[in-house]
Amino acid sequence: MVYIDGNYLPKSEAKVSVFDHGLLYGDGVFEGIRSYDGVAFKLREHIDRLYRSARAIMLEIPLTKEEMTQAFLETLRKNNLPNAYVRLVVTRGVGDLGLDPKKCPKPSVIILPVQILKLYDEKKRREGMSLVVAWVRRDPVDATTHEIKSLNYLNSILAKIEANNAGADEAIILDRQGYISEATSENIFIVKDRTLLTPQASSGPLPGITANIVKELARKIGYSVVERNITIAELYASDEAFLTGTGAEIMPIREVNKRQIGEGRIGPVTERLWGEFSKIVKDSKHGTPIW
Fold first, then answer.
1. Are residues 159 and 74 part of one domain?
2. Of 42, 149, 160, 215, which is the active-site residue?
3. Which of 117, 154, 163, 268 is deepest in the core (most CB within 10 A)?
4. Number of structural domains found in the chain
5. CA angle at residue 75 from 28 to 2, to 5 degrees?
6. Total-model pTM
7. 227 contacts: CB under 8 Å, gap ≥ 6
8. Is 192 a catalytic residue?
């Protein structure tokens, strides 16, 4: 069942208007959220970020946060999905072929669950991912910044096409100054001398919820975490590197532009962080029980 504006519909009947401005102009916001063994992991944090993104684009969500939470949980209950990946979407709503948001009287809320999302298999998690550096640059923070999780992902799609054409798993996107921003839909970390480095906000990465968890876990196991500008040369010379995201979870990087990273497989720090992360995702202290 798919939730659309208060109605629960079979997947075959779940449709949006061709005049919806989310379709016509990418005018909307979204979140991807996972549930593990009956726990919607970091649901409150995801919903908070959804509303922050909506506020940034002056989109008035027609549900309170509590109403959104209950709609989300009820969608999982109706589908009997203790383990799921859920796309939560709010569009500007139906308008006309002009782009003026004033023509869209009511935003639309869509909650779309699937049983599980496997971006990468466990073999890839052990062996690590191959990456290339994309020619496309991340939109700057004073433009269509990826700090806002909007429906406009063309910037990332162009980079993903480049990765596909190069036979790589993913692409790294740089900011306008040439510093690392993030991957197409993941945050990036490098490990060097008992320190985790990750790009700072001025480079335009999404404030990642999984990334924030990784920072907390790293500090608990005795690593310092520094947010600053990072160059590609520093990535090449790192001891380890990995990506984080709701879909990807934690994925090690094997090589970048054919340069081997560390030992060319999952490193000890990444492996330990993955182990710690795997423990907390099913803990109701870190999420919201579905039932």
1. no
2. 149
3. 163
4. 2
5. 60
6. 0.95
7. 197, 198, 199, 200, 201
8. no
Q: How confident is the model at residue 125 (pLDDT cuts 50, 70, 90)?
A: confident
Q: Residue 119 — very low, low, confident or very high, per pLDDT cuts 50/70/90?
A: confident
Q: Residue 287 falls within a domain, yes or no?
A: no
**Among 56, 99, 77, CA closest to 1:** 77
Domain assignment of residue 55, given as a range: 2-114
Which of the listed residues 114, 144, 161 is the one where a domain comes to its end?
114
Same domain, 23 and 63: yes
Please indicate, yes or no, whether residues 110 and 126 belong to a single structural domain of this protein. no
Given 114, 142, 161, which residue is the final one in a domain? 114
At 211, is the secondary structure helix, strand, or coil?
helix
Instruction: Give me 61's structure tokens.
Output: 């969500």
